[in-house]
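#lab-general

N.A. 3:47 PM
ok so I finally got the sequence cleaned up, no stray characters, all 316 residues accounted for. can someone with queue access submit it? mine expired

B.Y. 3:52 PM
send it over

N.A. 3:53 PM
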Amino acid sequence: MQEAQLDECPDLDFRRRFAPSAAGAKERVARLGAHPLMRDDAAPGPLTLASALQAPGRLGREDARNFGDGALNIAINSIRVRFGSQALTRAAELPPPQPWPSGTAIDRLSGIGGLPRGRLTLLTGSGTCGKLTLAHLMLASATREFAHAMVIDSGSNFDPWALLPFCPELSALTVVRAPAPDLAGEAAVALARAGAGFILLMGEVPEAWLGPLESAANRSGTVLVGVVDAPGRAFAHASSLSLGFSRTDWVWERGQLVGLRVSARCVKNRVAPPLGESELEIRYPLGAQPLFDHPVHVAEIPSLHKEELDCVSAVV
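B.Y. 4:20 PM
back already:
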C-alpha cells in the first residue's frame, strides 16, 4: 500500500528521498518482526469503565454522576445566593412533622404517636370495616381540642347526629356540603389556609387541588383526614399516612350483633417506618337509653390468631 501511494506521488524529489527509508523499514519488519506495541495479536487487558466503548456524546456512569452532582450543587448555591438561604431546603433538613394524638390505636401505627400535622392521612377499606367509626371518634376528639373542626362532604353522606355517641363539642363543628369535587377541593384549600385545626374529607379531592391543599396544610399545621373506600392514584400519592381496614369478624352477644372486629394495617407511611398492623374491636352497645347515652368503645385487642388458640371468648 505504501509502495502504491509512493508511486502515485507527483513530487519526484519526495519519492527519491522516501524510497530508501521505506525499503529499509520493510526489510527490518521482515527480518525482526513488528514492534511489540504495534502488534494486535496480544491478549487484551481487563475491560474497565474507562476503557469500555461508549456512545459518542455520552458520559460514563461515574462521570455523569459527578457531573450531575456538581451542576446541581452549583444551581442550588446560585438560587440561594440570589433569593436567600430559605429559598430551597433539602428534604433531609426538613423537621419531622408534629403529631396530633387522636387517642386511638392509629397513633401507634403512625410511628410518631399520632396523626401528622400538615399532612394527609387516609382511612381506606371497602364495606363495613370501621373506618368511618374511627373517623367519627377522631372528629369528636378534634372538636374538643380545636376551635374549628371541619367536615367537607362531597357525597352528602355525613350525618352530624352520628357523632353524639362520641360526645363532641358541636359548637366547634362546621359541615360543608360540596356538590362538586372542585368545590370540595376549593373549600379544603381555603379552610386549610385559614388555619382550621382539623379537616375531615368525606371523599376524594381532585388532583389539581392536592398540591395547594398540601402546601396550605403544611403552613398552618392542619390535620387532614380522608375517608374513602379505594383512593385514586393521585389521592393515594398525596397522602403521607395511609391505613387500610378490613373486617375480620362480627361480635355477637345473646343473639344480637353488638360490634365487629377489624384489622388495621399500615399501607403507606412517609413520616416514620411502618409498624405493621393491629387488631381492633368496635362495640355498639344496645339499650333503651337515648342515642347520646350509647358509648361506642374502640379498643385494641391481641391478635385474633393467637387469641383463638388460647381462648374462645373475645376480649372486651
